[in-house]
């Protein structure tokens, strides 16, 4: 059971892929959010139950009807939110596996009868892999993801890549405005890349923040950018990310989507610890001011604070300079 969000669902896919590669006969049911389902809906041999949290109690009743008469060998309770915990009560399972005590929030521990092993300073993806460990699923290396797309979406992506040539994706908008870098600085990086002969495209979702951020960047660049913001399905976006030479993004879903298809990511972080939430395969490429921000606010270094401690403030991302990002981008333009 993992309802949201896009980035976390990407991490969960790695765990599901591990189970499928090692236990080929396993029957997997995934309770998932409505939007997130659109990304993973074609995964083979997975039965999906969509939980539309906007429907409130009706969503719980729908879930109850879907699993009526079933008893699962194990329920992996991979979301600590109280809403998910309460909904999980309608699922009958021999083992109800939850997070360890240190990661249990919102009374999560009350709904589990077994807990994963405690781990210190683990990336969210590794935290999800703890559930596979608890089941006894053999470990697989390297971590892999299986997110199929329809042939027409794969073809669409190839056509865009052919038309664009070598390109970098900037996916500038996180779910909260304070986690976004300044549009003028994104524009400076876009100019830097395009002056090196590499195209830059903008991507993002259909929300107002995504649209406003993209428009602000386009208003500041020297050369026009092709803008796919709000114009793609999740599978089309995945294909744009797959064919990209590089992705630049803050703490947002497309950064993790890019990781699932093997595209390098330069992540921009100030509020959350990238060791925990950064693009899993590209932690060495992260541009982060988190350590200095959280130590200034909390009076302790990050490794002396509770895992997952966040820095707060609407201007923290301003501490990331254009030159800091250029240093991470430059090797890809050589």
TrEMBL record:
It holds the Pfam family Glyco_transf_9. CDD domains: GT9_LPS_heptosyltransferase. Keywords: Glycosyltransferase, Transferase. One of its GO terms (molecular function) is ADP-heptose-lipopolysaccharide heptosyltransferase activity. GO terms for biological process: lipopolysaccharide core region biosynthetic process. GO terms for cellular component: cytosol. InterPro entries: Glyco_trans_9, LPS_LOS_Heptosyltrfase. The keyword Glycosyltransferase applies. Belongs to the glycosyltransferase 9 family. This is Glycosyl transferase.
């Amino acid at each position: 059971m993992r309802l949201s969000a896009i980035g976390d669902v990407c991490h969960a896919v790695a765990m599901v892929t591990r189970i499928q590669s090692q236990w080929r006969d396993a029957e997997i049911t995934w309770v998932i959010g409505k939007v997130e389902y659109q990304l993973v809906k074609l995964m083979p041999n997975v039965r999906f139950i969509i939980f539309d949290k906007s429907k409130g109690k009706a969503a719980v009743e729908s879930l109850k009807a879907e699993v009526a008469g079933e008893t699962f060998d194990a329920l992996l309770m991979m979301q600590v939110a109280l809403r998910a915990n309460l909904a999980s009560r309608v699922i009958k399972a021999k083992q109800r596996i939850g997070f360890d005590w240190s990661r249990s929030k919102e009374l999560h521990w009350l709904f589990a009868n077994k807990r994963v092993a405690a781990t210190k300073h683990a990336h969210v993806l590794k935290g999800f892999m703890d559930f596979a460990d608890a089941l006894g699923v053999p470990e697989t290396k390297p971590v892999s993801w299986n997110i199929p797309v329809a042939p027409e979406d794969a073809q669409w992506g190839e056509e865009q890549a052919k038309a664009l040539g070598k390109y970098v994706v900037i996916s500038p908008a996180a779910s909260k405005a304070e986690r976004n870098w300044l549009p003028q600085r994104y524009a400076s990086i876009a100019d830097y890349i395009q002056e090196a002969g590499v195209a830059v495209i903008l991507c993002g979702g259909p929300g107002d923040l995504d649209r406003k951020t993209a428009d602000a960047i386009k208003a500041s660049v020297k050369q026009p950018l092709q803008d796919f913001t709000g114009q793609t399905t999740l599978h089309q976006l995945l294909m744009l990310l797959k064919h990209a030479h590089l992705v630049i993004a803050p703490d947002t879903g497309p950064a993790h989507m890019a990781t699932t298809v093997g595209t390098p990511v330069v992540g921009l972080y100030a509020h959350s610890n990238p060791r925990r939430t950064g693009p899993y395969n590209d932690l060495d490429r992260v541009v982060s001011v988190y350590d200095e921000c959280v130590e200034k606010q909390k009076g302790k270094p990050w490794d002396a604070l509770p895992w997952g401690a966040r820095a707060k403030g609407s201007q923290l991302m301003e501490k990331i300079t254009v030159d800091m990002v250029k240093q991470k981008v430059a090797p890809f333009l050589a």
